[in-house]
Model the fold of this input.
Amino acid sequence: MYISDIVTTVPDDVKERVPLEQEVYKVFTKLGIPFWRVDNEPASSMEECSDIGKVLGAPVRKDVFLCNQKKTSFFLLVMPEEKAFDTASFSKKLGVSHMSFASPEHMWEHLGTKPGSASVVGLLNDKDDYVQLIIDKEVAEQEWFVCNTGINTTHLKFKTRDLLKKFLPYTHHRPRIVDL
Done:
């Protein structure tokens, strides 16, 4: 799998990239969030993301987009890559019955991403705050955060505190920190 060298700048071809990725760079610049970036072949599995994390020196986080049975409540779960996800226990922990994976259409509608590219940066598209952000405690306590830019061909590493103290307040999302 091709993974570029690490760079700390906005891509030269930023205007040719997907709108969400363009917005990510604008917001990070506006908020003064430094980042380390790699471009890569499409990463369609957590194994491939693990290789990207090794290059960046921090693990890529697993993002899971879920909804309740009526498809009226949506959740973005951010968790460690190696942690197994159990829908039933997660539903019970949140007090939401019959939780399932949200459809690609709902993911596109609320996050502006496609399956395999769910990312916390997609909250920039959630202007009406439909999506509840759930972050595993282990992730929230780590120094570094790595995610894609809304497309699985670019990944960013930045400080978790910048996610929690700068980026999420900018998007008007308050994360719920849970111990999974």
Q: What stands out?
A: The first strand starts at residue 36 and ends at 39. The radius of gyration is 15 Å.
